[in-house]
Amino acid sequence: MPKNILLVSGGDTKYFNLLCELLNSIRNLPDGDRINLAFLDGGLKEKEINFFKKNNVNVVDPGWRHPIAEKKCKGRDFLKINIAKLHLDKIFPEYKIIIWIDGDAWLQSTSVIKLFELVALKKKLAIVSQATRLQENHISFKNAFFNFVKLKNILYKNAVRSGLSRSICLNLQGRPTLNAGAYGLHQSSGHWENFRYWQDIILRKGRLFTSDQLAMGLAIWQDNLSYEALPDICNYMGPWRWCKKRKIFVDYFAPYDPISVVHLAGQDKMRADPSTKITIMDMNDAPILKSLRFQGKS
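The structure assignment produced for this chain is given below.
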């Protein structure tokens, strides 16, 4: 892997085992030992930090990158990572391409790194849109009186909650969420400053936890900055299918491409308990019980 690419993740002590699985999933891939890794410390214990450092992971406490966020965190130090995700160009200025992967995700292949690099080199945001063929419902809404409906898509709801202007909120109606759980961006891209501009506005009234995703969405949909929506396999959150022959998770629909990033978003029980299993499909559409956690060598 090129020396100028950095893969970043992070979490607190509750995410230690998940971060270990992310680390092990990468190191067990071909050339995985050549991938530059850094973890943001959102509340890791000293022995956990030392463990990662011994395994060639750069552990960095990003601090609170915004004074409002520090005041509003209410002791939830892990939220400093949500804020720091939009400051990675400042935290790691020595790398040309920065790739973020959430701490509850792991890699089946390095294809995501190559795709993120391909787009990031054009100074575009490389990210996965949640408006895909995997969705049964593309727009969230609530029925109201007289056959009217109220749109409830994520970006619109969070924009309203953040007290943004009516025109901005209306512009986000029906817009797909660009999932901030995995993305790639060039160090010198102008997107970073726009991210932080919107983050500053959002944090005045909005939620810390969703501020990063909303800020990124506003940079794209409001500021019209460039991006490319990558395949679902670059940040896969289900539905799930297992190929027993290849012993890998694959895209649910044909041509059943191998998933590169397995993201456990929404899998609260499984994140807390690695023995948890869910029902997924095999290649013959037969239901099987399986964990989505990384099962490779440690």
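Interim note for the steering committee: The chain has two domains: 5-132+178-210+224-231, 234-290. The longest helix spans residues 191-205.
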